[in-house]
Design goal:
By secondary structure, the protein is α+β, with helices and mostly antiparallel strands. It is built from 22 helices and 19 strands. α9 packs antiparallel against α11. Bound molecules: adenosine-5'-triphosphate. InterPro entries: AAA+_ATPase (IPR003593), AAA_lid_NorR (IPR058031), Homeodomain-like_sf (IPR009057), HTH_Fis (IPR002197), P-loop_NTPase (IPR027417), Sigma_54_int (IPR002078), Sigma_54_int_dom_ATP-bd_1 (IPR025662), Sigma_54_int_dom_ATP-bd_2 (IPR025943).
């Protein structure tokens, strides 16, 4: 099929317009001399077979004027030689980027048509040139759009082959493309409204924007450590964007589609711990998975509320649907409503064309995780309550209600009942959320988990940082068991990550951050001094009983089960102790 065949309909329309406007006939041929489109009159009078050499001549010369059809040099060999129905033919070559793609003929079958053209030859030359340019531009743009759309489709398709998150940014850092995996990773925000600054840490963002190449570097993204690679896109020596890959681990390759079952199992398995609390928690998660009832997770910071919310989602029948997170502290109050409930076009100045779905809509059929619910502004609490009562939302500026099928999981480290008393949290909302309450105990109350968690994090960071640290010294483990962990599991994880970076073999007390090793030293010193004062008190009592002379000292040493020399050494301390206690 000839290239111009694709544009037949458009050419027919243009030819009809020329015919109406100029009262002249018109035809377009491809470079193989096939008639592509013409006026009815042209087809009737000349048929669809054209004298090929004349088309070749136009292609060679750019244009020709056949003002005596049938009698000119180019008519030699034509079947209409000496009896051509046309009175005049004005032909131009149609080119795209200097490449001939066809020929257009302005034709008349009347004497008046012939005279009109020959008497105004400059005008008609100009008109024909402009029509030719118009046709080539229209074809070019149409093809370009088609090519661009096809390229976009191809790009999306290519990016979706990868299980890794693939993002393309433009020269300003705005996200132009994201594959399915990236949209899922950033499902808590609308990826296409983000810039690279909002999704990657600042140090990486500035290097990417400078056109630097990054290969498998670790960054904390959406609360997890991931590997980031970036390749600048250069056009005409200018930075026009970058292709970014975010992967779970170095080994992630372009493999099969994610297995949601595996994903689901892994998520609950990600919750480590041997304590009764953890075992009980897992049992509870399996039990409530099939339900769509609202869950309220409470617990101190870093106890794993976010991890648990994900596990509930992936354990449930909604596992293949979106998991959308809202951190109630990170959205400014003024944007809260439009972010969470979405908005309609024209709802406010700056509102996007076509409006924007809110996070509730994005979570349709899935789960919405409202983190730090205790921080939710009061007016928003009223709106949320309405959603939980009616399971419909209204976009800002919208007039209709949109039904939502979403499971709500909320989490907080605040005492909501105390907030209710302070009139900072709605009681009715609290009861709506607190259908299935789950409390995550702090790490200090489940010390049995410290060992398994430490081992787990050691494994994780050995793998991530490509190290082979074998384990922890007894002193470190003792410290871990004694420490009160105000930052809970997050704090433990951070210490282990630091230590895996620092250690040269087994993790010792010197490999953990200074703040902790110092605490350990102080704790040990205070234990030592406590032990010593108890010991000295016992020596004193024994000496009081047996006498402070040589014989008494020997009897006291025997009674206390210590060597006489040790007793004399300790006595020196007693002298010190005596002076301290008599002061
Ligand atoms: N039982 C667990 N097993 C393994 N990792 C855990 C466990 N609990 C928490 N973590 C890890 O500890 C870190 C903190 O967990 P998470 O962010 O879920 O805590 P959170 O309670 O939501 O904290 P915050 O209230 O500060 O948001 C995460 O990296 C998480 O993967």
């Amino acid at each position: 099929m000839s290239y111009l065949e694709n544009h037949k309909d458009m050419l027919k329309t243009i030819i009809q317009i020329i015919n109406d406007a100029l009262n002249l006939d018109c035809a377009v041929f491809d470079t193989e001399s096939n008639l592509i489109a013409s006026t009815t009159q042209y087809l009737k009078r000349k048929g669809n077979s054209v004298h090929a050499p004349s088309i070749e001549e136009v292609i060679l010369n750019g244009n020709i004027l056949v003002n005596k059809p049938g009698y000119m040099k180019s008519c030699i060999g034509c079947r209409f030689r000496e009896h051509c129905p046309a009175t005049i033919e004005f032909l131009n070559c149609i080119k795209i980027e200097e490449l001939p793609i066809g020929v257009i003929a302005l034709t008349s079958f009347t004497k008046s048509g012939h005279d009109k053209i020959t008497h105004n030859i400059d005008l008609y030359t100009k008109i024909l040139n402009e029509i030719t340019v118009l046709i080539s531009n229209m074809i070019y743009n149409k093809d370009k759009t088609r090519r661009t759309l096809a390229m976009e489709e191809m790009l999306q398709c290519a990016l979706n082959i990868s299980d890794d998150s693939m993002i393309i940014i433009d020269s300003a850092g705005s996200v132009s493309y994201g594959n399915d995996s990236a949209l899922k990773l950033f499902s808590f925000c609308s990826l296409y409204t983000q810039t690279v600054r909002q999704i990657l840490p600042e140090h990486m963002n500035s290097r990417i924007m400078k056109g630097e190449e990054i290969q498998n570097e670790i960054a904390r993204i959406t609360n997890q450590y991931m590997f980031v690679s970036s390749m600048p896109i250069i056009h005409n020596d200018a930075f026009i964007g970058a292709a970014i890959r975010i992967s779970q681990d170095r080994e992630t390759k372009y493999s099969k589609k994610p297995d949601h079952k595996a994903n689901k199992d892994r998520c609950l398995e990600d919750i480590k711990g041997d304590s009764f609390a953890i075992k009980d928690l897992k049992k509870k998660v399996r039990k409530i998975a099939s339900s769509s009832s609202t869950v309220l997770i409470t617990g101190e910071t870093g106890t794993g509320k976010g991890l648990l919310a994900k596990a509930i989602h992936f354990e449930s029948s909604r596992a293949n649907q979106p998991f959308v997170m809202i951190n109630c502290t990170s959205i400014p109050e003024s944007l809260f409503e439009s972010e969470v409930f979405g908005y309609e076009e024209g709802a406010f100045t700056g509102a996007k064309k076509g409006g924007k779905p809110g996070r509730f809509e994005l979570a349709q059929k899935g789960t919405i995780f409202l983190d730090e619910i205790g921080e939710m502004p009061m007016p928003m609490q009223a709106k949320l309550l309405k959603v939980l009562q009616e399971y419909t939302i209204e976009r800002v500026g919208g007039i209709s209600s949109i039904p939502v099928d979403v499971r709500v999981i909320a989490a907080t480290n605040k005492d909501l009942e105390a907030l209710i008393k302070e009139k900072k949290f709605r009681e009715d909302l609290y009861y709506r959320l607190n259908v299935i309450p789950i409390d995550l105990p702090p790490l200090k109350e489940r010390k049995e988990d410290v060992g398994p968690l430490s081992k787990e994090f050691l494994k994780k960071y050995n793998h991530r940082l490509n190290r082979k640290i074998p384990g922890f010294s007894q002193e470190v483990m003792d410290f871990f068991m004694d420490y009160s962990w105000p930052g809970n599991i997050r704090e433990l994880e951070n210490i282990v990550e630091y230590a895996v970076n620092m250690a040269e073999g087994m993790i010792t007390i010197e490999d953990i951050p200074h703040k902790y090793s110092q605490l350990n030293k102080e704790a040990k010193e205070s234990i030592k001094s406590k032990v010593e004062s108890v010991e000295l008190e016992m020596i004193k009592q024994a000496l009081d009983k047996h006498g402070w002379d040589v014989k008494g000292k020997a009897l006291a040493a025997e009674e206390l089960g210590m060597g006489l020399r040790t007793l004399y050494r300790k006595l020196k301390n007693i002298e010190k102790w005596k002076t301290e206690n008599t002061d």
